[in-house]
Amino acid sequence: MSRSNEQDLEEEIARLKHSLHHAQQKLKQLDNGVPSLPITEIGNENATNISPTSHALLLLSDSALPLGSFAFSSGLESYLAHHKPLPPSTTSIQSFHHFLHLSISSLAGATIPYVLAAYRSPQDIATLDNDLDASTPCTVARRASVAQGRALLSVWERALRPACSGGGSAQLAVEMLGAFSVTLKAPASAEPFGANGHFAPLWGLVCLSLAVSEQQTAYVFLFNHAKAVLSAAVRASVMGPYQAQGVLASGWLQEEIGRGLSGNWDVAVEEAGQYVPGMDFWVGRHELLYSRIFNS
Length: 296
Hints:
By secondary structure, this protein is mainly α. It is built from 12 helices and 2 strands, in the order αββααααααααααα. It has helices spanning 3-31, 52-60, 76-81, 92-120, 125-134, 139-160, 169-185, 199-209, 214-235, 241-249, 251-262, 277-284; strands at 39-42, 45-48.
């Protein structure tokens, strides 16, 4: 047998071993209940094909998404100002964890039903937007919701819309977002009760247009809120950046988000409401602070 034939056989054996290794890895993942990602071979290298949905999730959970969320403290700055000094038995970290728990519970009870309703019934976006506006008595919270909602719609129009290639409900969401944008840009005199652009229902609709699952839509909505509050805590010198990342990675936060979702998963928008009245107090009094570093 010639030297070249031996080399060809060795290369063929190496390729077969490589294929066998990947087949065994995928089988092991399936046995453990972990879905395997599709793997394609490009030349002699392997590349992982990330689905469009996973790519959209990375975009929507990115801290660099220009929604203006980090300009607001979600009531944290006011909470800190109204809790000075702390009791000797309470540390600033313990006090912050208490606030974050209340903040997630408050947001989940007041807005998750609207996120899910917009996802499930995209044709009702105008009604949901109007209902959420009517059920948000806190002026500061309303301003923050509208500012972030309109920013999200602008991001969708300018950057995310070309990525919407699905059919069915995703296509309906694209159409509803386009129509809602037109209504939002109409002169105020054209509609006596015009669109407001609240964040929660628009988030549900944008995620549907990108074919993100219902569970992921709701989870990332609360997770992004937690990230914004933790970012505010770092800038307010409550904790350091490593401590904030530790909270984000903790099982405690996952459980908090899970409780917020499970408790409001089947709640109708007519039954949604503020579970933590004190949160409206802290958020509303933020604009009355003598000095502040966040927007009201």
